[in-house]
Amino acid sequence: MNALLGFLSRNLRLLGFLAIAVCAVTWWIDLAGLVHECVYCRTQRTAIGVVGLFMLLPDPRIWWLRYPALCVAFLGAHVAAAQLFLVIRNLNAGEPSNPMNMILAAGALGVLIGQALLLFTPARNK
């Protein structure tokens, strides 16, 4: 586990590029009309991309850069959790719901919390 954390901490910029790529591709899919419009999804993907931009900076672990990145990450995480509870409420009420919404919201929640936690890991030497 420590080796994985060290790998992720050393490759923070690579993970930032990956987050921006995920954000760009999902926005393209949305704007192309291939999926239905969802404000929850749009907020989550934008938060993932913005935190990815912070991860590209030379030292995103200094406090005045970490604070706005964490605010954006936790905004996205809050929206993902709200979407999860909305899907669960709809399922309990017997209303039809797409299970993919739950899977994608849980994935976004995991990614956003992971990004936030990586900003608190100490910088590792290569």
Give a written overview of the molecule.
The protein has 126 residues and is an all-alpha fold. The protein has one domain. It has five helices and no strands. It has helices at 2-10, 12-31, 39-55, 63-92, 99-118. The relative contact order is 0.17. The model has no long low-confidence stretch (mean pLDDT 92).
Work out the strand percent.
Answer: under 5%
Radius of gyration: 16 Å
Mean pLDDT: 92
Number of discrete helical segments: 5
The count of strands amounts to 0
Low-confidence stretches: none
Integer tally of domains: 1
Distance between the termini: 17 Å
Characterize this entry briefly.
Helix content is 76%, strand content 0%.
Annotation keywords:
single chain, 76% helix, mainly alpha, 0% strand, 5 helices, 126 residues
Summarize the topology:
Elements: H1 2-10, H2 12-31, H3 39-55, H4 63-92, H5 99-118
Helix pairs in contact: 2-3, 3-4, 3-5, 4-5
